[in-house]
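Standup notes
- DV: blocked on the single-chain target, sequence here:
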Amino acid sequence: MKFLLLEDHEGVREVVELFLQMDGHEVVSFERPEPALDYLAAQTVDFVLMDWNFPGMTGPQFLRQAQERFLPLFSPKVGVFSGDFDVEQEARDLGATYFLT
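- DV (later): unblocked, structure below
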């Protein structure tokens, strides 16, 4: 599978990327949502694994923009990780299939 990993904390991003690669997946990772949107303009992925909170553009804004700009092409599974249980329903309403805390 090809993963787009979107995480602003470098250490977390590196560990998740390493585990996915060790499991045989291709991983393209980004620290900020804006370059990830640019990437999706030219590439497709099977799974988006993303944090929910970023400075600037938020996780919900990223998902809304990706869907508006790239549907029907933007149809990967989406997994969101957040320490905030209160955002789970919002994440699911925006297309997240998985929610990790």
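- Follow-up: Strands lie at 2-6, 26-30, 47-51, 77-81, 98-100.
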